[in-house]
């Protein structure tokens, strides 16, 4: 009978030990699963954040391409600039506006820091075209509006209006236009 008791106790010790090992192993497996789930959640969060960053990068790239296309549309060669000046003179003559002074400043007025800080060199230069117009206030306004509507590549940088002391209905408009050259198309 002692032998059966020993066998019975051994059987229970082995059963309890195996059950304990099973639950210990199960606990370790669950712990690993929880760690893996935590790692997967962290990776998904990072991927989602990277998707947002990639979307922002793509939006910035698209915006910069749009700006570059806009800048390229303003690009003028010397011949195109002279044609544009001739067109302005023609429009001014049709409106009884006297163009008394045309001055092209070939000095690049684009800020130096822009070129130094830019990682992408676009070779852009900005020059100034100055015009002095004399005529009726409304006609000068219509001329400026016509230039804007017809898609002139010149962009008004400044406009100063003075009363013409010799003509009570007239004004003297001193216009400065920005022209962009040197853009690599």
Produce a short descriptive summary:
This protein is α+β, with helices and mostly antiparallel strands. The chain has helices spanning 2-73, 78-94, 112-117, 137-149; strands at 98-105, 125-136, 155-163, 170-181. A hairpin with a 6-residue loop joins strand 3 (155-163) and strand 4 (170-181).
Description:
By secondary structure, the protein is an alpha+beta fold. It folds into two domains: 1-73; 78-181, Ribosomal protein S6/Translation elongation factor EF1B (Alpha-Beta Plaits, 2-Layer Sandwich). 58% of the residues lie in helices and 22% in strands. β3 and β4 form a beta hairpin. It is rod-shaped and about 140 Å long.
Describe the secondary structure blueprint for this structure:
Blueprint: H1 2-73, H2 78-94, E1 98-105, H3 112-117, E2 125-136, H4 137-149, E3 155-163, E4 170-181
Antiparallel strand pairs: 1-2, 2-4, 3-4
Strand order of the largest sheet: 1-2-4-3
- SSE topology string: HHEHEHEE
Cα-based radius of gyration, to the nearest Å: 39 Å
| CATH architecture type of the largest domain | 2-Layer Sandwich
Average pLDDT level: 82
CATH class of the largest domain: Alpha Beta
Number of beta-strand segments: 4
Class derived from helix and strand content:
alpha+beta
Beta strand %: 15-25%
Biggest beta sheet attributes: 4 strands, antiparallel
What would the principal axes of the Cα set say about the shape? rod-shaped
CATH topology descriptor of the largest domain: Alpha-Beta Plaits
């Amino acid at each position: 009978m002692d032998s059966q008791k020993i066998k019975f106790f051994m059987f229970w010790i082995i059963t309890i030990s195996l059950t304990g090992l099973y639950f210990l192993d199960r606990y370790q497996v669950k712990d690993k699963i929880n760690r893996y789930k935590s790692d997967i959640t962290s990776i998904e969060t990072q991927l989602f954040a990277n998707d947002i960053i990639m979307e922002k990068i793509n939006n910035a790239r698209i915006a910069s391409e749009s700006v570059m296309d806009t800048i390229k549309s303003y690009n003028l060669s010397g011949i195109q600039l002279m044609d544009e000046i001739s067109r302005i003179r023609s429009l001014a003559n049709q409106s009884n506006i006297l163009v008394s002074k045309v001055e092209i400043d070939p000095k690049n007025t684009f800020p130096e820091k822009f070129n130094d800080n830019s990682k992408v060199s676009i070779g852009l230069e900005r020059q100034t075209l100055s015009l002095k117009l004399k005529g009726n206030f409304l006609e000068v306004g219509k001329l400026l509006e016509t230039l804007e509507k017809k898609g002139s590549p010149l962009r008004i940088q400044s406009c100063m209006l003075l009363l013409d002391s010799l003509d009570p209905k007239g004004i003297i408009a001193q216009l400065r236009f920005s022209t962009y050259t040197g853009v690599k198309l």
